[in-house]
Amino acid sequence: MLGIQKIAHYLPDTKSWNAEKKECFDIDDDFIENKIGVQCRTVKNEDDNTSDLCVKAYHELLKKIPVAENEIECCVVVTQNPDYNIPHTSAIVHGKIGLSDNCACYDLSLGCSGYVYGLSNIIAFMQMNGMKRGLLFTADPYSKIIDMQDKNTALLFGDGATVTLISDEYEWKPVTFSFGTNGSNYRELICDDTLYMNGRAVFNFTATTVPKHIKEMMEQKHLNDADIDKYILHQGSKYIVDTIRKRLGVDAHKVPFHMFEYGNTVSSSIPMILEEELDKPENSRMVLSGFGVGLSWASAIIEKK
Amino acid sequence: MLGIQKIAHYLPDTKSWNAEKKECFDIDDDFIENKIGVQCRTVKNEDDNTSDLCVKAYHELLKKIPVAENEIECCVVVTQNPDYNIPHTSAIVHGKIGLSDNCACYDLSLGCSGYVYGLSNIIAFMQMNGMKRGLLFTADPYSKIIDMQDKNTALLFGDGATVTLISDEYEWKPVTFSFGTNGSNYRELICDDTLYMNGRAVFNFTATTVPKHIKEMMEQKHLNDADIDKYILHQGSKYIVDTIRKRLGVDAHKVPFHMFEYGNTVSSSIPMILEEELDKPENSRMVLSGFGVGLSWASAIIEKK
Fold first, then answer.
1. Which of A196, A239, A56 minimizes the C-alpha distance to A138?
2. CATH homologous superfamily of domain B3-170?
3. B82, B86, B124 ranked by CB distance to A111: nearest
4. Quick check: A96 and B177 CB within 8 A?
C-alpha cells in the first residue's frame, strides 16, 4: 500500500499586487477580497522554467525529510505549461535532480483537477509496478500564457510548484477517487497563444457539477459531513470556494481558503493547503476536489494512517 | 484483471515519397531501404488536428468491434503534439466521440516509449478505480513540427494514430513492465519550435541501453528467447531495429518491421504492429519495447489469455 508521506511547495518571492490595478480594470477592494480573493499573485523569475519550479519545490522537500535520490522509482509532473512539448518535463526534472536510470518518468497533462488525478495515477502506476518511492510534482506557471490586459485572467493566477513524496511509509492514504469530464465544453478554458477563460461558464459548470459530485462520492462511501474534518477545494477564486461550500452545507472552518497571498496556482492549489493540513492532529479524514480545464473534475477521500 | 481487447489504427492517405528527395538530401536507395527503412511517410490532412486522428482511429475500432460509448470509463491520449496545451487532447476526444460525464480523461506526455508506458498506466489507473472499459489513444503527428530541410528528421516521421480497447474481456494481458529514464541527455531529441534530433546520440543510447534492458526484464521473469514468439520494437529506423535484434541474438522472423510504407509514427509504432500480431495463432507471448524522447525507454511482456 502506498500513500502520501510528505508535501513541500515553492512560491516565487516576486509578487504582483492587484491593488495597483484597480483603475486599470475598474475594480474595488470588495472585488479583490470577496470575489476573486487574490490580494497579490506570485510571479516566477523570468529565467525559471517549469522544471526549475519543480526542482525548487524538491529542495524544500529535502529541508523537511531526507530523500535518497537513487531510491526514487517514479517521477511524475502534472503540467499544461511544460518547458517544451518534447521532451516531457519530468525527464528534465529527472536530469536536474539526478535520479537513477531505473526511474520511470512521465507528464500528466491536466489543469486544476490535476493533483487529484495525479495522486490516483502515480499510486496506481507505482503499486502495479512494485515501486515504493515516487515524486508527484505539480507546476503550471500561467504567467507564461496570461494576457495582462485580460481582466478575466490577469488578476487571478499565481505561479508555484509542489512535490508530494509517495511512499510505503505513508502518513495518509487514499480511500476512494471519483472523476468526470465534460469535453464538449472544452473551449470555455483554452490556450491557443494566450489563455482564454469564460469565467461565467466555468463558474456555472463548477457550481452545478462539483458539489453534487462530492456528495455522491461521500454517499457511496456512506460518509456524511460529520465524518469529514476538512474539504480541500481547488482555489479557483474566493467566490467559487464559498459557493461550493454553501452548496455542500459545510461550516467555513472546514474549508481552508489560502490563495489570498499568491493566487490560483492551478494543480498546485490543493497540495499547498494539504501540506499544512496533513500535520494537524484534529484531521483524520479529508475530501479533496479539483475542477477546471477540460472541463474536468476529480475528487478523493483520504485518511490518516 | 484488465488487458488488451482490440487495437485499431488510422493512417492518412497522403504520402510523401523519399525517392523524390534523393537529390535534395544526397541519398540513395540503399539509404532509403536499409538505413532509415522508410519509402514514404504518411502526412495528415492540414485541417486534421491530433484529436481528429484519434477520432479516425476510433471509427476504425468501431468497424472491428461494437463499443458502447456510455460504458467507456477512461480515455487516455499519449501525445507530445496536443491540439492545444490547454486543455488536454483527451478532453477534446471525449467531446468529439461523445463519451459520458463519468469518464476520466487525461493525456500522457511521452514519445516513442509512450505506448508501453500508456498500457501500464491506463490498466493500473483503471484497476485501482474499479473501471472496466477504457480507450488508450496514441497520436503524435510530427508533421506539425518537422523542419522539411533537416535530413535527420524530414525523411523519417509519419503521421498516424491508434486506439487500444482496454477491457476485462481482454485477449492479451500484461505480465510485467520495466521502465527507465536518462533525463540528463534530454537535449538530444527536443522540440523548441521545430524538432531537433541528434541521430547519432539517440542511436548510441538505444543500441547500448535497450537490448540490455530487454534481456534483464526477461531474466527477471526466467524467460529466454525460446519463450518469446515476437519482439515488437518501436520502429525508430530500419537500422536501429536491426541493431537491437542482432544484439538480442534473435531471428529476423521474430521481429516484425513495418514502417517502410508509413514511417516512424512515434508512440503509434508498437500498437500498429501489435494490432496484426494479436490475432496470429502462433503468438502466445510477446515482448514490447519503446525508446526515444526523454531519453526514455519502456518494455513489457504480454501473454495471450
1. A56
2. Thiolase/Chalcone synthase (3.40.47.10)
3. B86
4. no
- Please report the residues numbered 171 through 200 in chain A whose beta carbons come closer than 8 angstroms to any beta carbon of chain B: 177, 179-186, 189-192, 195
List A residues 32-91 in contact with B (Cβ-Cβ < 8 A): 75, 80-82, 84-91
pLDDT, one tens digit per residue, over A54-78 is 999 999 999 999 999 999 999 999 9
* Contact (CB<8Å) B86/A189: yes
Residues in A 251-270 with any Cβ partner in B closer than 8 A: none
Which of B98, B104, B189 is closest, CB to CB, to A86?
B189
pLDDT at position A154 over 90: yes
Return the half-sphere exposure (C-beta side, CA atoms, 13 A cut-off) of residue A157: 27
Identical fold, A3-170 and A173-304: yes
User: At residue A271, does pLDDT exceed 90?
Assistant: yes
Query: pTM of the predicted model, to two decimals?
Result: 0.97
Q: Does A121 touch chain B (CB under 8 A)?
A: yes
Would you state the pLDDT for residue A193? 87
| Chain B residues lying within 8 Å of A99, measured CB to CB | 181, 183
> Does the pLDDT value for residue A240 go beyond 90?
yes
Q: CB–CB of B145/B271 below 8 Å?
A: no
- For B173-304, the fitting CATH number among 3.40.47.10, 3.40.50.2000, 3.90.1150.10, 2.102.10.10 is 3.40.47.10
Q: What is the DSSP string of B241-282?
A: HHHHHHHHT--GGGS---GGGT-B-GGGHHHHHHHHHTT-TT
Residues of chain A with pLDDT > 70, as a percent, come to 100
Task: Spell out the domain ranges in chain A.
Answer: 3-170, 173-304
Q: How close B30 gets to chain A, by Cα (Å)? A: 30
Q: Which residues of B190-216 are buried (b: 16+ CB within 10 A; e: fewer)?
A: bbeeebbbebeebbebbbebbbebbbe
CB B103 within 8 A of CB B94: yes
Local mean pLDDT, 10-residue blocks, chain B (305 residues):
98 96 93 95 97 98 96 98 96 97 97 98 98 98 93 94 98 97 92 91 94 97 97 97 97 96 97 97 98 96 96
Per the prediction, chain A carries an average pLDDT of: 96
- For testing contact with chain A, the best of B73, B86, B184 (most A CBs within 10 A): B86
Quick check: B154 and B25 in contact, CB under 8 A? yes
pLDDT higher than 90, residue A295: yes
**Confidence tier at A238 by pLDDT (50, 70, 90):** very high
Handedness of CA A44, A49, A51, A56 (dihedral sign): negative
Q: Which of A140, A110, A123, A164 is nearest to A273 (CA)?
A: A164
Tell me whether 0.90 is exceeded by the ipTM.
yes
3-state secondary structure of A300: strand
Determine the pLDDT at residue A106. 98
